[in-house]
Structure formats: C-alpha cells, structure tokens
C-alpha cells in the first residue's frame, strides 16, 4: 500500500478518534507530520486525495478543514476499486464486449443484494450510519452540480455502500465490497449515458432522497421498494439508450450500403 494511502487512512482515523466536526481545522502541517510520522510529501499527497473525495477542503491562507465525514472502510473500498480497475480495466472491457448481457447480470445482482441491505439498514442504522449515508448523498449532489461525473460516480457508489454498512450484516457488507468495482463501473456507465440530462438527474436525485429518507425513518419495506425502483429505473434508461444507439448505428450502416 502506498505511503500516501496509509497516511490518508491515518488522517481519517484521527478525524474519527478526535470526533472533529464539519468545519473543524486540521492541525498545522508540521504537527500532522510529527503525529503521523510521515514526510511532508506523503502528507500533502494524502490531503490531496481526501480533498478530491470531498472529505477535506483547503482554504487559501487559512488551512485545511473537514468538509464531510468518511468511514475508513469506505475509503479502503474506494481505493481497492480504483487499483483493481486500473489493473483489470482492459480485461473487464473484453468481458463486457464478449458478453453483452453481463450488465444485466450486474443489475440483477444489485437488485437482489441491495434490496436486502436497504431492508436491514432501515431497521439497524445508527445515527452515525445515517450521517455517513447523508454525507455520501450530499457529496454526490455537490459533484453533480460541479459537473464532475467521475467523482459523482464514486460518491454514488459510496452512497450505496454506506447503506450496506448500515445493515450491520458482515456477509452482506463483504458481498457489497466485492461488488464495489462492478457497482462503480455500472454507475459510471449510467452517468455517462443518462446523468447528463438534467431532467433524468432530477429523477435520480429524488430517488436517492427517498432511499435516504426511508432508511433514516426506519421504514424497511419502503426502503427496499425505493432502492429496487431506483435500480430498475437506471437499468431501463440504459437499456432504452443502448437500443436507440443500436438503431442509429444500424441506420447509419444501411445508409453507407445504399
């Protein structure tokens, strides 16, 4: 594991251990280097990673501040996803090309797994769990407003992972971690195809809001139905867009032949 990633984890643990609230200023760079026993280069790279994830923010002339909380488990999952994707991206693309129905398999897996995690999260989520889910939800909205599709996709996947974490079922959480790479890829695909449309984004934003509300209010049946509706909607939209693209390409080919 890279030193900067280890340093980022240590920073997250420090924020959690000291219960630093949103808006709290981190200690000075020299103090952090001494406390974490790392170089300034490693610290700065780690802070940059957390700023990129929306956990921290840098204010010119003032320092670095806590922007949103993030569980270490979620950070580790995101790093594992990024590293695995970098190694396997070509292989995954070949698998998807060889089996066009693979995306539907991911959809069905998400539907079965996330219906369960939402059900249990609505019954077992602690106030801290709700805050983690809400933080991912707020971060997703922020990145969407900025037009940062890649970071929005990561925040979207983290939103779903935070719900799994709130289920307090270790097996379900382990399965979600294993699915995280595919989940993030699935979300990126969806965003590239439908999230660029403001009207569709408003629908998706409302669906995420409903899921958050039902989990927060302790409504397991409603939470399960909301997440199934959301995943089903995303899948149908992608299917419709891919069908339209296939028709357009077919007409284009026919035009060339004619």
Automatic annotation (TrEMBL):
The family database entries (SMART domains) matched by this protein are listed as:
FCD, HTH_GNTR
What's in the keyword line of the UniProt record? DNA-binding, Repressor, Transcription, Transcription regulation
Q: Which GO terms describe its molecular function?
A: DNA binding; DNA-binding transcription factor activity
Keyword check for Transcription regulation: yes
What PROSITE patterns does this protein's entry cite? HTH_GNTR (PS50949)
Pfam families (UniProt xref): FCD, GntR
Pinpoint the HTH gntR-type domain residues.
Answer: 1-69
Question: InterPro entries recorded for this chain?
Answer: GntR_C, TF_FadR/GntR_C, Tscrpt_reg_HTH_GntR, WH-like_DNA-bd_sf, WH_DNA-bd_sf
Its biological function? Transcriptional repressor for the pyruvate dehydrogenase complex genes aceEF and lpd.
| Protein name as it appears in the record | Pyruvate dehydrogenase complex repressor
**From what organism does this protein derive?**
Faucicola atlantae
């Amino acid at each position: 594991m890279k030193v900067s990633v280890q340093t980022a984890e240590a920073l997250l643990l420090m924020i959690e251990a000291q219960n630093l609230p949103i808006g709290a200023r981190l200690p000075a760079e020299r103090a952090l280097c001494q406390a974490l026993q790392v170089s300034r280069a490693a610290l700065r790279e780690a802070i940059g990673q957390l700023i990129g994830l929306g956990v921290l923010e840098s204010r010119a002339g003032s320092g670095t501040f806590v922007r949103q909380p993030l569980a270490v488990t979620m950070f580790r999952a995101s790093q594992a996803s990024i590293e695995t994707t970098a190694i396997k991206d070509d292989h995954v693309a070949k698998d998807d090309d060889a089996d066009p129905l693979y995306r539907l398999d991911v959809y069905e897996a998400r539907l079965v797994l996330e219906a369960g995690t939402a059900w249990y999260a609505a019954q077992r989520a602690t106030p801290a769990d709700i805050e983690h889910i809400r933080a991912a939800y707020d971060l997703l909205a922020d990145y969407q407003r900025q037009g940062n599709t890649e970071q929005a996709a990561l925040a979207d996947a983290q939103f779903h992972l935070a719900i799994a974490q709130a289920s307090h079922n270790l097996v379900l959480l382990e399965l979600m971690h294993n699915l995280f790479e595919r989940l993030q890829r699935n979300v990126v695909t969806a965003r590239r195809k439908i999230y660029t449309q403001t009207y569709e984004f408003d629908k998706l934003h409302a669906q995420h809001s409903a899921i958050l509300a039902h989990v927060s209010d302790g409504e397991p049946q409603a939470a399960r139905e909301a997440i199934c509706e959301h995943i089903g909607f995303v899948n149908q939209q992608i299917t419709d867009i891919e069908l339209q693209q296939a028709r357009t390409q077919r007409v284009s080919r026919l035009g060339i032949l004619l």
